[in-house]
Amino acid sequence: MRAFPVVMPSGQKYWTVLDDDLEVVSVADRWLRNLRFGRDRAELTTKAYAGGLALYLRWCRSTGREWTAAGRDLGLFMVWLKYTPAPRDSVVPVVQPGPGAVPVRGERRINRVLVAVRGLLSYAISVKEAPRSVLGQIYELADSRDLPAEAQGEDGGLFHRLRPVHSLREPETQVDRAEDAELVAMFVACRNARDRLIVLLVGRGGLRRGQVAGLRRSDVHLLPDSRALGCDYPGAHVHVRRRENVNGAWSKSRQAWVAPLDFLVVSAFDLYYEERHRLLGSGGSDFLLVNLFREPLGEPMSPEAIGELLERLSTRAGLARRVGAHMARRAFASNVADAGGAPDEVQAVLGQKSLHSQAPYLFPDPKRVRAAVLRVPSPRGLS
Question: Residue 381: pLDDT band by 50, 70, 90 thresholds?
């Protein structure tokens, strides 16, 4: 069992599951195809789900279980996931049981696999490929009291929902922002104008790497007044849009939004345009960021290439850790808040739909937090 990419005649891609005879697993393929084109999910989502389904179907085959009836044994599947390594070069590894065995997959990864399995089984029930009794094996009836406050609704009333039967408690992971000094060091370590623009787009524009890779030249408006271009948004900015891209770039935000640019980013655009014109001429792809120093010249950079670039810059700058695009995005949001930005302003510059979505991105400056404490009047002044 393996995940496999499928390219449609239109150029759009999704991932499916192949069995050991390289035949498409029909029900899995229909569900993944429906997710991609019927529910507008990202290609990378189908890739992650296909990988999870391949693991589930491999476990069913190796243990002699029918995949439609194995929902009642998902607890055993979770143990198998935790300790069974993936095959390498078609060789199935031997599991070494016993106390002290080292897990090969963490709680977060196992939970993500279970999401894919429940999705497949639920779809199979809806198309009568699996009996309805399977639904009771993977979900239980629960109420809203254990949901976060923001998910309980404005009326605060009690409602019932289906809760997964099988899940692991994920350990809290420490997330962090990039330090301004780290981003400056990465900027200085760049060897060309294109790479410097990328660092500024993630560090002072707050864009995700998929959004950076998906920008077109037509999305960039650098004039103080762009009404001549049919755009009423004032000042320099870029339009971030979700669209199908040949380089696999994908904007997580469903709605289009505008990212304002400051003078540093505008200056970086000027230098990059000069560099691109000098190396490629006036033609080339409408994608903003393209290959300038390696073949195929002029082809758009992929999100993976941008991630690898940031990793190389972290090493070249001598940083003690790897700074990625998401850490730079958190730094941008925190800097906007520390500079006095209101919550709705932080929400707007991040392109988020909900005010609650910005919470994981904010890391208040300790100096600002201390200043807030010191502003509290002394009780002596009240006597």
Answer: low
Contact status, residue 347 vs residue 332, Cβ threshold 8 Å: no
- Give span(s): CATH 1.10.443.10, the chain: 180-368
Span 302-322, pLDDT tens digits: 889 999 999 999 999 999 889
pLDDT of the residue at 248: 79
pLDDT of amino acid 154? 45
- Strand blocks (E) in 46-204: 139-143, 160-164
Looking at domain 180-368, which CATH architecture does it have? Orthogonal Bundle (1.10)
CB 83 within 8 A of CB 65: no
**Cα dihedral 326/268/282/289 (nearest 10):** -10
Which candidate, 31, 259, 209, places its Cα nearest to that of 124? 31
Q: Which pTM does this prediction carry?
A: 0.72
Q: From 129, 114, 2, select the one nearest 58 (Cα to Cα).
A: 2
Write the CB contacts of 114 (distance below 8 Å, at least 6 apart in sequence). 52, 74, 78, 164, 166, 167
